[in-house]
Each structure stands twice: as structure tokens, then as C-alpha cells.
Amino acid sequence: MATQSTARQLARAAWMAPVVAFVFNVFSKNIPNRTMMTIFIVAGVGMLFYVAGAVCGVLALRKKTPGEKSVTIPAIIGLVISLLCILLVCYVFITSYLRASD
Fold it and tell me: What distance in Å separates the CA atoms of residue 78 and residue 11, rounded to the nearest whole number?
């Protein structure tokens, strides 16, 4: 069994991290006795997965060798999905903050 290169593993982690974060957030909606602290913890863990996905995408693109196949597309997809999720979370946070301050 051949081992995969570091760039290929990072590219796989780049697109899997946002998927894991999404599944984590979906299943965390059923937590009994939810408090504000549990909501912040769940949101923080989700955000860590999104940031980790973006970092893995960047590292995969930097570690890719010129002849290596199947690294660029998964890394770019993971990077784009992670960055879009980060932007969405920041947008929701800012608009919620502005509405609450009025």
C-alpha cells in the first residue's frame, strides 16, 4: 500500500474540515439544556474547523510538487468553502451585533 504525500493529505483535510464542521454544527442543535456558553463553544469549535480547512488548503498548495496530481482541485475547493464559511460567520456576527446595539 503506497503512502500518500503530505500535500495530498493536506488537500483532503482542506475539503473535509468544513464538512466535519457542518456535520458537527447540525448535530449540536439537539443538545439538551443549551446555554449561551454551549452555543459559544459549539460556534468556536466550528470556526476552528473552518480555519483549519483554510490553513490546510494553503499548505497543500504550497507543498505540492510540479508533477503531483489530484492536489490542486481538492485544495482549492476546500480553501474556497472554508473561506466562504468564515465570511458567512463573520457577516452574521457583525449584523447580529449591530442589531443588538440599536
Answer: 7
Q: Going residue by residue through the chain (102 aa), what tens digit of pLDDT does each one get?
A: 457 888 899 999 999 999 999 999 888 888 888 888 888 888 899 999 999 999 999 999 998 878 777 888 999 999 999 999 999 989 988 998 888 887
**What 3 state SS string does the chain have?**
CCCCCHHHHHHHHHHHHHHHHHHHHHHHHHCCCCCHHHHHHHHHHHHHHHHHHHHHHHHHHHHCCCCCCCCHHHHHHHHHHHHHHHHHHHHHHHHHHHHHHC
Spatial distance between the Cα atoms of 7 and 45, rounded to a whole number of angstroms: 24
Q: Which three cell numbers stand for residue 75?
A: 485544495
